[in-house]
Every structure is written in C-alpha cells, then in structure tokens.
From TrEMBL:
Name of protein: Heme haloperoxidase family profile domain-containing protein
A Pfam family this chain is assigned to: Peroxidase_2
Keywords: Heme, Iron, Metal-binding, Oxidoreductase, Peroxidase
Domain Heme haloperoxidase family profile per the UniProt entry, residue ranges: 25-229
Native source species: Endocarpon pusillum
Protein family: Belongs to the chloroperoxidase family.
GO molecular function: metal ion binding; peroxidase activity
Cofactor(s) this protein requires: heme b
InterPro entries reported in the protein's UniProt record: Chloroperoxidase, Chloroperoxidase-like_sf
Amino acid sequence: MPSSRSEHPQLQYEQKPEVKQLLGDNHSYIRGNIATRGPCPGLNALANQGYLPRDGNNITLSEVETALMSALHMDKPLASALTNSLKPLLHKDKTFNLVDMRQHNIIEHDVSFTRLDFRQGDNYTFQPPMFQALLADANGGPVTVKSLAKTYVRRRKESKAAGSPGLSINLWFVNLLQSVSLLNTAATGGKLSRELMVTFYTEERFPEEVLRNEKPRTLFGLVGNALLLLFYTFF
Ligand code: HEM
C-alpha cells in the first residue's frame, strides 16, 4: 500500500537523516499535501512545521499534547482539554490522521469562519473569499475579539440562510472556543495583525513571533476570550 510519505517526494526528502542533521530540530516550514490535512489550520500548521508528523498520519494524542505545550506554550490543562476532544477520532491503534478531522459533526461543524457548511459541499477546504470577509469585519485594522464577534454573528446568519441546521450544544461550545483560538494562541495582546492572519490561514504556518513568545497560554484565557466574544455579540 503506498503511504502518503512515498506519494509526496518532498516529505520523503524531509525525512532523510542527513537532512534532519543539517536542520537540527527540523521545524522548518514545508507545506504538506493538502490531501493529508484537515479543517484545523492550527494542527495543519503544527504538521507543516514538524511539531506533528509531517505526513499528517498516525498521530497519537500524546504527540498532540506535547506539540501544543512545546511549540505553542500551552499549559497542561489547556493542552489536555484540546487534545481530549480528538478521542472520538482515534483508530484501534489509538492514533488518528488529520484527514479524519473532516468527518462532519464529530468535532468538525458548520458555521466555521473560513470553511463552508457541510450541506454546501466541502466542509474542510480553506475558502479565500470567506477569509477576505473575516478580514473585512475588522475594517482594515487588526482582528480583535470585537471583530471576531462580528464575524461570529455574520456567519450564523449566513449559515441559517444557507439552510444549515443549528449546532448541538457541544459543537456550539467547540465553535465558540475555536472562534478565539488563534487570538488566544498567538498571545499578541488581543490583536491579530493582517500579516499574522495571512500567514496562519493561507500558509498554515505559525510565525516566529508566536513560536518564540513563551507567555503561557491557559484554559482560563481561552474561556475568558470566548466569554468576551459572546458579550460583544450582544452589545
Ligand atoms: C488538539 C488541538 C486542536 C483540535 C482538536 C482542533 C480542532 C479543530 C477542528 C475540528 C476544526 C474545524 C472546525 C470546523 O470548521 O468545522 C478547527 C478549526 C480551527 N482551529 Fe483548531 N484544533 C486544535 C488546535 C488548534 C490550535 C492550536 C489553533 C491555533 C491557532 C487552532 C485554530 C483553529 C481555528 C482558527 C479554526 C477555525 C478555522 C476557520 O474556520 O476559520 N486549532 N480546529
């Protein structure tokens, strides 16, 4: 059976020991084939930067938790909480592939900011016009909790207009947390520059300013940002 490593020569090249030796820790950015990726730009980026298996396959929960703590400076409670949400996707051998995250209504859901709803045909591919609308909600400035609240309300209306069913309470909560996950992970003082947004969403890469910023990212911070977003949806 051909593995995706052998289908994608750049990944094979990446794994040669002499290349690893030359690159040291080997967290250089090499974009993996999109066919091996899921709808989460965060986990895709971790694979593109070698914090998770670059081929996006056979990933263990402990690899995810370690990557979140070491690359993105999450504390253990936050890293564990996020990682545990992957449990329903595990295979018999206790691993999952990034593509498994495309399965609808397990942890993937409608009303995403940059992905279409399931009934619109493709629930996992990045959609550039949706990304432009996300940036436009910030009126030319940086993306903030307030602009994300605007996006959140707009996407709910668009999804309803497209005839998609509402989210279950579980997925509503997951969606709410995801809406502020980049803001919390970037830890750039509540503002996401357009440059950071473009790098993260279009290249699926965490810029150095995020990776080098060792400020601990906490579950408390994530939930706090989510509550602030909710507040702005009302006021
Ligand atoms: C174990 C950790 C994680 C899990 C299980 C996870 C899971 C997911 C899933 C399933 C989606 C797709 C939701 C959908 O559109 O239906 C998603 C989207 C997203 N994830 Fe993650 N994620 C994780 C870590 C991260 C991290 C560290 C970031 C950091 C920035 C991140 C940022 C995002 C963003 C911004 C979206 C929304 C994409 C959009 O529609 O605009 N995620 N995540």
